[in-house]
Amino acid sequence: MSIKLAILDLNDNTPNLGLGSIVEHAKAFQSELCYQVFDVRHKHEIPGLDFDLYISSGGPGDPREGDGKWEVAYFDWISKVLHHNLNHKDKKYVLFICHSFQMASIYFKYGEIRQRNKKSFGTYPCYLTGNGLYEKVFHGLPNPMYVADFRSFEVIKENYETRTKDYPRVLAIEQIDPTEPRQRAIMAVRFTPEMIGTQFHPEAYAEGMYDYFNQENRRQSVIAEHGEDRLLQMIRDLAHPGKITLTNQTILPNFISESIKQIKEQRVPQPSFC
After folding, report:
1. Per-residue confidence band for 213, with pLDDT thresholds at 50, 70 and 90
2. Residue 85 maps to a domain
3. What is the pLDDT of residue 4?
4. 238: which of 34, 191, 206, 221 fits an S-S bond (Cβ 3.0–4.6 Å)?
5. Strand positions, DSSP E, the chain
6. Are strands 53-56 and 93-97 parallel, antiparallel or unpaired?
7. For residue 200, what are the contacts with CB-CB under 8 A and spacing of at least 6?
8. C-alpha dihedral (186, 191, 197, 199), degrees to nearest 10
9. 175 in a structural domain
10. Are 167 and 191 a contacting pair, CB within 8 Å?
């Protein structure tokens, strides 16, 4: 029986590069799984529990606000997956990205969601915590790893542990900004043994970002809002094989392959001793 992946699109009908990249990662495993895309915010589509793993995308806007429909259904979906995993041996695996990560933080009542003083925009080093160093989804990445980070909101939590056996577990935090002393935002969390989330975009790929931001109108818009130095730094990071390209080639493939491995092990018939 084929393994089934549900891709939850939270982009609210906004054109973006991320969703296509997630689909391409899914296609790389087409010999082992099939996938279906659900338009959560625009068409109010929510997958059922007949899927084995889920990838929930980023999207625009304030995660604390919705239309009274899609976010209710979304939280209900998280609740159903969580309840299933607590009561069944065949687990279901979830990766939350950016906006989805913030929604999951709200659901689990983990940390404080707040608006940033200034939008985070570009490529940045991201530091693994003690738990992050042992996270299988991050296996193969350096510390710090480099991530694509585009957000107006963030998750903050005081006095989080860098190594704990409990869940949720903080896996990564943002870099220190010496020009703006403040609590460092959380960049990745394992909410449960089966549910993980990243504030950044692990699906971001260098070629697509370079082409997108090299378009003259977008280039000038970035320079006007964030400065030319920020743009040039991002372009340099995109050209480095050990930065955004490595992150893209590591996290999503690791999540999918590790999930497939666990699902297959759960489906192996147990020997009978009767």
Report:
1. confident
2. yes
3. 97
4. 206
5. 3-9, 33-39, 53-56, 93-97, 112-128, 145-156, 169-174, 186-190, 195-198
6. parallel
7. 98, 126, 147, 148, 149, 187, 188
8. -20
9. yes
10. yes
How many domains does the structure of the chain reveal? 1
Instruction: Provide the sign of the torsion angle of the four alpha carbons 175, 177, 181, 186, taken in this order.
Output: negative
Residue numbers of the domain that contains 262: 3-204+248-267
Question: Could you tell me the two tokens for 259?
Answer: 């999930």
Q: 3-class DSSP state for residue 154? A: strand
CATH number reported for the structural domain that contains residue 263 in this entry? 3.40.50.880
Q: How far is CA 31 from CA 73, 95, 170, in A?
A: 31, 21, 33
pTM: 0.92
Phi, psi of 270, rounded to the nearest 5 degrees? -80, 140
- Axis-axis angle for helices 216-226, 206-213 (nearest 10): 90
The answer to whether residue 5 scores a pLDDT higher than 70 is yes
